[in-house]
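Following up on my earlier message about DQA. Here are the inputs again, as you asked, copied directly from the submission form:
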Amino acid sequence: MPTVLILNGPNLNMLGLREPTIYGAETLKDLEARCCARAEALGLHCDFRQSNMEGELVGWIQQARDGAQGLILNAGAYTHTSVAIHDALRACELPVIEVHLSNIYKREPFRHHSYVSAVAQGVICGFGSHGYELALEALAAILNRNKKG
Ligand code: DQA
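Thanks, got it. Here's what our run produced:
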């Protein structure tokens, strides 16, 4: 069963408490349960993690090169700042889907640039936690396509 690594960046451990009008009422645990159920239905193994530390996220992305077949990433605020995460994604050579709960293009201008997008196969934003399920569907299709060659 292919493994999909789902990484969540800073402050996403605060889901449910943090600005619920923007990020929704679900907690990170709820989101993990939703992702794992959808992954299982798609025949994927889901490895779901969160960190507030840039270096830890970079380490996990590096390990994914050998330990996973695809990556879903909500890098939180590091999306808009981190060349280190951009470089790690480039080096891991896996299909990457960028996800944001909110529509970052409807928000402050500093959220309009993403260092992740240039190394992602696609970007899903503005659909709340459902966006993670859409990302899993997209990744399942990509992995199936790659398997068939
Ligand atoms: C976010 C959007 C980012 O701009 C913000 O810094 C986050 C969450 C989202 O999921 O909408 O922490 O990635």
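One observation from looking it over: Residues 9 and 76 are 5 Å apart (CA to CA). Hope that helps, and feel free to reply on this thread.
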